[in-house]
Amino acid sequence: MAKTSPIEFVKQVQTEARKIVWPSRRETVMTGIMVMIMTTLLGVFFLGIDSIFDFIVNSLLRLAQ
Predict the structure, then answer these.
(1) Gap between the Cα atoms of 49 and 54, Å rounded
(2) Which residue segment(s) compose the domain that 35 sits in?
(3) CB 20 within 8 A of CB 12
(4) Which one of 18, 27, 49, 53 is CB 3.0 to 4.6 Å from 23, fit for a cystine?
(5) What is the pLDDT of residues 1-37, one digit of tens each?
(6) Would 13 be classed as within a structural domain?
(7) Is 3 within the bounds of a domain?
(8) What is the rounded radius of gyration, in angstroms, for the C-alpha atoms of the chain?
(9) Is 42 a residue whose pLDDT tops 80?
(10) 41: closest CA among 24, 33, 11, 58?
(11) What does the UniProt entry say about where the protein is found (predicted)?
(12) How many structural domains is the chain composed of?
């Protein structure tokens, strides 16, 4: 692989940086809302699973006494 001079490297980085397309404000807000909804749903789901396992383990421990 050919060596690139630091100046050429900086030019290449600037060229690539110009190709970046940033999301609009609306896209950012919608993505943030979707993340909040999904994390809430997953939190409720895992709370339910944890509660079920807690009930099962406590029931088994009560039977063992």
Answers:
(1) 9
(2) 22-64
(3) no
(4) 27
(5) 778 899 999 999 999 999 999 999 999 999 999 999 9
(6) no
(7) no
(8) 26
(9) yes
(10) 33
(11) Cell membrane; Membrane
(12) 1
